[in-house]
Amino acid sequence: MKITASVTISLATILLRHVAEGFAYIDPSNGSIPGGNKKTEKIENELQQSAVLPPDCDPQLLKEHAQFAYELADAARLEILPYWRQSRHTLGQEIKVEKDRSVFQSASPVTLADRAAERAMRELITERYPQHGVYGEEYGVLREDADWVWVLDPIDGTRSFITGKPLFGTLIACLYKGTPVIGVIDQCILNERWLGLAGQVSTLNGEPIQTDGVVTLNEAEMYSTTPDMFQHGDELNKFDAMRHAVKTPHYGADCYAYALVASGFGADIVVEADLGLYDYCALVPVLQGAGGSISDWNGVELTLQNHEISKGRVLACANAKLHEQALEILSKPGLESSDSLDVDDPSLTLL
Fold this sequence. Notes:
disordered C terminus, alpha+beta
């Protein structure tokens, strides 16, 4: 089924809107990317950069690929926007069933918008960089062993999307030899776009960002998409310990929660599990380039090669001190639950 929007949305229209609203688009004529102003330089001097560009990665190619990542995000917007707040019938909702996953991930919705956005991005990649790999949520993996691999989640937070809540995002990552070096989090409804590049300060709509978290767990605001993403047993017990250690646990933001941490908007920690590679690769450069820390629950780097080891368990923190304290809980083997998880607990805060 193909949807026809009442108003034709074109790439040119979106770019003109971006200019009118002060959105930072990468100029294709000179390959310039957001950043390079005095504010960026100040933050660069203050941040202890944890996102390091691999020594054999060409900085000029990185800039070129960052420009292309913006083109991919624009293409995804064109496919997603006509479906926003449409009927179930128009969305063409289906349920994707996966075995050996958490309660949350075992039956997840997928829409025509998800598929159309990923197809559009994959077509552009194949046309521009036929030798590059592609790892997408909806259409699988091609050339996973290529030096450059694009990792795509067209709509991270489909449950939010189908219920009209603008807390989903398009995630676009570019890996160099398995390491995330480019990350884009694009929220097309709110017109917000985060960009992370290895070795550079992350930006939100072209303006540099910096985390601004507390330094102790008992002061921290923590996000997770849902308690149902944690497997019963050790995984759920550790999450239970974390939600009791922090000031307030919050739920329901998917990738947007990581963007909030990176931007210093009041969120301090994100703890999640059972994520796909496409769910977190784009988040890595954005968090690290804003001064945050992100790893699996054992402090292992999040890469293509480490995905099976990490088991989709992700910890993102506003700073290294919080990260270290959280790892003390999450990396303990065989943690026993102090009390059972009660979803009616008043300490649980839902969006």
